[in-house]
Amino acid sequence: MRSRIAIFALAALTVMAAATAQTPGRKIDFPVDSPLTAVSSDWSETRATPRGGAFVLDVHAVLSLRNSSQRRIRGVTLAVLAQEVTPGGKGSVSVPSLDVGPGEAFPLRIDLTLLCPLGGPMVEVKLDGVLFDDLTFYGSDKLHSRRTMTVWELEARRDRKYFKTLLETAGGAGLQKEILSNIDRQRDRPSAGVQMVRSRSTNTDPERELQFAFLHMPDSPVDPTGGTARIAGNEARAPHINIQNRSDRAVQHLEMGWIVKDQQGREFLAASIPSDVSLGPGKSSQVTQDTALRFSERTQIDSMTGFVSSVEYADGSYWIPTRGELNDPKLRAVIAPSPEEQRLLQIYRKKGLGGLIEELKKF
Amino acid sequence: MKQHVKETDLALYASGDLRLWQRAAVHLHVRQCASCRERVEEFRADARMLREAAAKLPEGLDWARLASEMTANIHVGLAAGECVSPRGRAGRLHKSIPAVWRPVALASFVAAMLVVLLAGGWWLNMPSQDTRVLSRAMRSIWHGRTAIEERGPAIEASSEGIELRKDGGSLGVSQDAAQLVTVSVSTQGSASANYVDQDTGQVTITSVYAQ
């Protein structure tokens, strides 16, 4: 009998814990001249639960947004804020590979966990940016969404063109073979848990300096010429890479991929290294980051490889690798498909080859 | 009469969760033992009451989480019940305690139950991720390394998604309705997770920021 009392008491505690969750306030704050209008929103699954001196906001919402501009929308980024300054109070949701015409509506799902101070939990959704089909941009761009969405859109155009060309030259069977190969590669792509910490190493293992190897892309305007990182056990920190602008245009931003190979021979993409630079034609510079990457206890870093994944010129135009350059066996094994390729692969899974060809014909 | 069946086995038998070969043995015993039969009926009545109580729970509960918490609670409750009063031995135990010590024993029992209840309440409200911090620290000690306290938040990406960790707590991202395809970490202090809607193929990229 007493054990039954214990069971019921604990069950009551469970129900009480669930009951302490409350619905936070919410606000969709788009500018007056925004090209997006919120048509409806469903926040019914959003909850705020007190934890220590703060609220944990489990934000689960579905917004229906309408394109109120005269241009087609290709991408949207929303900032989701519970508090702007403190870590844990800010997140974002982006939807690339859109094709939303004037007056059309589309759904956008938000799933995030945020922290906010005690006293009136509140979640606010702001528009960070909208990318149009002519690559023009609207928004505050506080999260640098212009750059990321432009790169996604350029990758989308590159990948659609590649698949359409394949369809024309190799027919449906050739396209299907490529898609199935990409699905297999996506399934087999290695991934390892990685933790990124700013500014310092977190253990006292003896440290050594490890040289980067580089994958050189023939068309890349920026070439890495050398670099190192500090390695201590399962941690790599403070990457330092020398770069040279071999184009005739100034470069203001670049992003590099950081591939790590462990002592078991497993290779995976550990992180990206974005960097603002001021790199005139033919000039050299350095990319340094005061960060540490920590892998699982079993991962002992054996070697590292770097490659340039995107470049932004000072005039606002971009360079991204071609499909041919991405066909390097090392890159093919570790790089994730672009968001557009992920979308097309899912359309193939759901609707088959006919559905995929139909989708490619839309563009 | 042979020895009574264990309390936990009776509970599992009542809910139909006992292994096949054990179920047959318990079934035979219960048919002959009025005490155990009565206990099984009590467990079944408890299950009915729980089902009725569940029907009155508020809407919007995370059922998967609640189910795992309830299962764990039941294990805790059964373990506590066994510690406190195995049936049949309770009377002997009571008689074996001198009358002068019985109030002390009763107070100890109440205190123990209170500790179990408080620990249960704390445990229910503790984020499961927090235990990872403790386990990491224990692993560091086990491997002979001296962990240096981290300054500032850490961003983590794994095959399960992305998380922001700070002060022992963690904030994650999960989209139950969509499939996680990729995660990525930027050395400038953010992590992103790409989810693909299974029906439409629409890709949603959710990011968390360390600053």
Commentary on this structure:
The complex is a heterodimer of chains A (363) and B (211). Chain A has 363 residues and is of the alpha+beta class. Chain A is 26% helix and 43% strand. Chain A has five helices and 19 strands. In chain A, strands 10, 11, 12, 13, 14, 15, 16, 17, 18 and 19 form a ten-stranded mixed beta sheet that branches. In chain A, strands 1, 5, 6, 8 and 9 form a five-stranded mixed beta sheet that branches. In chain A, strands 2, 3, 4 and 7 form a four-stranded antiparallel beta sheet that branches. In chain A, strand 18 and strand 19 (318-319) form a beta hairpin. In chain A, helix 2 packs across helix 5 (339-361). The model of chain A is unreliable at 14-19 (pLDDT under 50). Chain B is of the alpha+beta class and 211 residues long. Among the domains of chain B are: 1-56, Orthogonal Bundle (Arc Repressor Mutant, subunit A); 130-209, no CATH class. A three-stranded antiparallel beta sheet of chain B has the order 1-2-3, with no helix packed on it. In chain B, strands 4-5-6 form a three-stranded antiparallel beta sheet, with no helix packed on it. In chain B, helix 1 packs across helix 3 (34-55) and helix 4 (63-84) runs antiparallel to helix 6. The longest helix of chain B has 24 residues, at 102-125. Chain B starts with 6 loop residues before the first helix and ends with a strand. In chain B, 27% of the residues are buried. Chains A and B meet through helix 1, strand 6, strand 7, strand 10 and strand 15 of A and helix 3, helix 4, helix 6, strand 1 and strand 2 of B. Strand 6 of chain A pairs antiparallel with strand 6 of chain B.
